[in-house]
Amino acid sequence: MTPLKIGDKAPNFKTLDQNGTMHQLSDYKNKKLVLFFYPKASTPGCTTEACNLRDNYKRFQSLGYKILGVSADSAKRQQNFILKNNLPFNLLADEDKKVINAFGVWGAKKFMGREYEGIHRTTFVIDEKGIIEDIILKVKTKEHTLQILK
Length: 150
Known about the structure:
Elements: E1 14-16, E2 22-24, E3 32-37, H1 44-55, H2 57-62, E4 65-71, H3 75-85, E5 90-93, H4 98-102, E6 106-111, E7 114-119, E8 122-126, E9 132-136, H5 144-148
Parallel strand pairs: 3-4, 4-5
Antiparallel strand pairs: 1-2, 3-8, 6-7, 8-9
C-alpha cells in the first residue's frame, strides 16, 4: 500500500490523458484535486466508482474540486470508458505506471484465491497547495462521493 500519508506533499506527476493532453500536478495549483486510482476501465467496480463521481460532479465543481482518474489503461481504452459512461472528467492513461508508482498504489493483490500484481483502488484528496489532505484506501464504489466529501 501507499507509503504516502495525510500531510505529505503530493508527488509531482506528468502524464497524458485520454486525448493526449499532458497533465501535471502544477496544473492544479490553487485548486482542490481528487485523484482516484482504479484497476481497469470498464470493469464493474471501476464503472460503479466512476459513475458515482460523475453523478455528483456538479457538487464537486461547486466545492472547487477537479477530478482525475488514473489507471494503466491505454488512452483509447480510457476514451472509450469516458464515452460509454458519459464521464465529465479526464482519465490519465498511465501505461508506464509512473504516476501509479509515484503514489505507491501498485502491488500484490488477491482475488478469488489468486495472487497477482495490480493497482490498489485508492483515492487521494489534494489541497490547493499540493498537500494530501485525505487518502481513501477502502473505497466503497457506490458511496465514493460520500467518502470524499464526508
